[in-house]
């Protein structure tokens, strides 16, 4: 015997059947948590129908919830990309105005007189790290260092594209319904390492950018594509009808963890490693020795502030 309720929408739900035995009679009552028509049935097949109907309703509810999560993620990533692109355009226009002013000022200035450089002795990697940390750090240097060869708008675009690559990796990792803390911690640590490896590719793009004109446009275009990567990943998910199994907060946790590991831990270690490598190859580069390995290392660790530092020292 089963107790069933049919709601106003026509869906069937199973209710609790309470039985109370009073001497020779038995009282039966249905306890339901919904409004509708209540039926008492003795069919042996009704339980199967109810179970199938309930499973179908739960599946529809889950699909609607996942679709809602997907739409929220699309809106958030789209808004973020639009904001980042607006910031890039703002600084690009600002760089163009500054460049025009510099051209005007240089045409009005007389040739500069070079002062004699004082001879200095190298004081150690740790001191250089403390003094030049804020001008080499990828994020902090945006506020403290001005590079004549690499415009501020390009450096901002480069940083934002790397952040969006972290976001893209987080979205891809949340495709599966893996909500274990161990996997989330693994993704938080692994993603910044992947971006660190990809910075070799970024260094090549930056070298292309230094040629200016068409090469600079190509470099900016590649970075803009990388900036839009989260939106492209979600577009592919939509076309292939792939649903993300995780909620937005898990994506946010991974991305924020990635940013912390990348900028607070990996970036300082990378800066110190660059200074050590620069210290080892500085003499060879300064004397223009034909060492292909040193020149390759110099290409990847090169930074204008380090170039300026090591040119000042007569003894390294």
From TrEMBL:
Positions of transmembrane segments: 70-93, 178-202, 214-240, 260-281
UniProt keyword annotations, A-Z: Membrane, Transmembrane, Transmembrane helix
Name of the protein this chain belongs to: Transmembrane protein
Organism encoding this protein: Paramecium pentaurelia
């Amino acid at each position: 015997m089963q107790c069933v309720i049919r709601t106003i929408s026509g869906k069937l739900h199973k209710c609790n059947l309470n039985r109370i035995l009073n001497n020779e009679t038995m009282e039966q009552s249905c306890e339901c948590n919904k409004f509708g028509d209540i039926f008492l049935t003795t069919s042996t097949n009704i339980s199967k129908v109810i179970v199938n109907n309930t499973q179908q309703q739960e599946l529809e509810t889950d699909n609607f919830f996942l679709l809602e999560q997907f739409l929220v993620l699309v809106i958030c990533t789209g808004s973020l990309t639009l904001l980042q692109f607006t910031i890039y355009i703002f600084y690009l226009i600002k760089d163009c105005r500054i460049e025009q002013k510099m051209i005007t000022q240089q045409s009005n200035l007389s040739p500069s007189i070079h002062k004699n450089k004082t001879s200095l002795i190298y004081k150690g990697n740790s001191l250089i790290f403390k003094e030049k940390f804020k001008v080499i750090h990828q994020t902090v240097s945006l506020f403290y260092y001005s590079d004549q060869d690499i415009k501020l708008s390009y450096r901002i675009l480069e940083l934002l594209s790397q952040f969006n690559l972290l976001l893209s990796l987080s979205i891809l990792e949340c495709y599966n319904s893996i909500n274990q803390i161990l996997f989330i911690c693994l993704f938080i640590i692994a993603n910044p390492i992947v971006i660190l490896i990809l910075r070799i590719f970024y260094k090549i793009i930056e070298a292309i950018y230094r040629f200016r004109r068409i090469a600079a446009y190509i470099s900016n275009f590649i970075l803009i594509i990388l900036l839009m990567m989260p939106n492209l990943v979600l577009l592919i998910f939509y076309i292939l009808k792939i649903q993300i199994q995780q909620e937005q907060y898990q994506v946010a946790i991974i991305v924020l963890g990635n940013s912390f590991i990348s900028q607070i831990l990996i970036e300082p270690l990378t800066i110190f490693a660059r200074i050590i490598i620069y210290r080892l190859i500085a003499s060879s580069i300064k004397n223009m020795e034909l060492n292909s390995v040193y020149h390759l290392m110099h290409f990847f660790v090169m930074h204008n502030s380090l170039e300026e530092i090591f040119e000042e020292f007569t003894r390294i």
